[in-house]
């Protein structure tokens, strides 16, 4: 860098911390980190609309994933199908109640809260309006909750358990399992469209 740039014009790569000078981009341009390729700046209105659409999709998939049958176990002529909600509710009495609460919060509550906060922040911005009150707090909350959204871990854990009980009973996957898989893909796509810097920039410019 030849001359020192003001701090608010610098943008640090969220993956590798390389510093770049920010720039106003055209409608179809995007900026990526020169060192590691992480997306830094996205075109504003369009990427906001993409993220809103994907967050809505994720919320609907989430509801399907909780209430539809997750898996069906058959052994010796008996079969039983359960949804994630039913399983969590099975622990809702006695000393295991905190477990039921933690399961529902980590698998269901936090992702829905996060998608809701993202939609709240981005909806006015995508319509070229000023951000709604407390948008900055809502976006910070969505960012802080990200490491706690554990749909992927849940699917991996389930897969391991299925392999283990595969020898004892015949197990078939219900629609909720596939809804969870679609949810993971939708979440990954959303992260690909989402540039924190662009959103902070849009929230800041009233
Ligand atoms: Zn980088």
Q: For the largest beta sheet, what order do the strands appear in spatially?
A: 6-5-7
Ligand catalogue: zinc ion
Uncertain spans: none
* Sheet/helix structural class: alpha+beta
Tally of structural domains: 2
Q: What is the count of helical runs?
A: 7
Overall mean confidence score, pLDDT: 84
Instruction: Estimate the strand proportion.
Output: 5-15%
Sheet with most strands: 3 strands, antiparallel
Query: How many angstroms separate the termini?
Result: 30 Å
CATH class categorisation of the largest domain: Mainly Alpha
Shape: elongated
Task: Determine the CATH topology of the largest domain.
Answer: Butyryl-CoA Dehydrogenase, subunit A, domain 3
| Secondary-structure element order, N to C | EEEEHEEHHHHEHH
Number of strands: 7
> Can you give the helix content as a percent range?
55-70%
Radius of gyration: 21 Å
Q: What is the CATH architecture term of the largest domain? A: Up-down Bundle
Any descriptors?
two-stranded antiparallel sheet, three-stranded antiparallel β-sheet, binds zinc ion, alpha+beta, 206 residues, 7 strands, 2 domains, elongated, 12% strand, Butyryl-CoA Dehydrogenase, subunit A, domain 3
Description:
- With 206 residues, the protein is α+β, with helices and mostly antiparallel strands.
- It folds into 2 domains: 1-41, no CATH class; 44-204, Butyryl-CoA Dehydrogenase, subunit A, domain 3 (Up-down Bundle), CATH 1.20.140.
- 56% of the residues lie in helices and 12% in strands.
- It has helices at 44-67, 84-90, 97-126, 135-145, 151-165, 175-193, 196-204; strands at 10-12, 19-21, 31-32, 39-41, 71-75, 78-82, 170-173.
- It binds zinc ion (ZN).
- Zinc ion binds at residues 13, 15-16, 18, 33, 35-36, 38.
- Zinc ion (ZN) is lined by residues 13, 15-16, 18, 33, 35-36, 38.
